[in-house]
Amino acid sequence: MESTGRIFKCARCFKQVIICSRCDRGQRYCSPDCSETARNHSQRAASHRYQQSREGRIKHALRMRLYRLRKQIVTHQGSQPWVPNGLLQTNPADTRKADAAPFQSVVTRRIQCHFCGCHCSEFVRLDFLQRRRVRYLNPLDQRGSRNDYSP
């Protein structure tokens, strides 16, 4: 039996992704690259907010003072040497081959998990699978017990 899939948009690049229920662990990103990029962006933003605070400015000034004492100079890294653009020559024979390729119609496309590649059902979820909550009612909690009564 095919597993059901969940469809979502990547929180960073807004790419539409389908993930099967076996791989679904609450992902928000389409790939580890998007996840890492979003994490780096979040850390940079937090660092910037900290640098703007009073405590962050004081610690940064102290760190730069100690660096100046250690190195005697504070400069930025120099520019990289200029390299001319290397243009590639196109081969006209390759472009003619691409234009001459016959049009192939797409037959029914099966839905696959973006992470493991397994086939999913054509019915996809828009939200996470909800765990069934079994409500446990202890009858003694409602009525009390013999030991609860005190005169």
Task: Describe the structure in your own words.
The radius of gyration is 30 Å and the shape is flat. The mean pLDDT is 77. Strands 2-1-3 form a three-stranded mixed β-sheet, with no helix packed on it. The longest helix has 21 residues, at 32-52. Strand 1 and strand 2 (16-20) form a beta hairpin. The chain has helices at residues 32-52, 54-71, 92-100, 139-143; strands spanning 3-9, 16-20, 120-125. By secondary structure, it is of the alpha+beta class.
Secondary structure layout plus pairing:
Elements: E1 3-9, E2 16-20, H1 32-52, H2 54-71, H3 92-100, E3 120-125, H4 139-143
Low-confidence stretches: none
On the 0 to 100 scale, the average pLDDT is 77
User: From the alpha-carbon coordinates, what is the Rg to the nearest angstrom?
Assistant: 30 Å
Distance between the termini: 63 Å
Output the helix-strand order: EEHHHEH
The best one-word shape is flat
Numbering strands along the chain, what is their spatial order in the largest sheet?
Answer: 2-1-3
Report the sheet with the most strands, covering strand number, pairing sense and barrel closure. Answer: 3 strands, mixed
- Proportion of β residues? 5-15%
Proportion in helices: 25-40%
Q: Give a count of the beta strands, DSSP E runs of length 2 or more.
A: 3
What's the number of helices?
Answer: 4
Derived structural class: alpha+beta
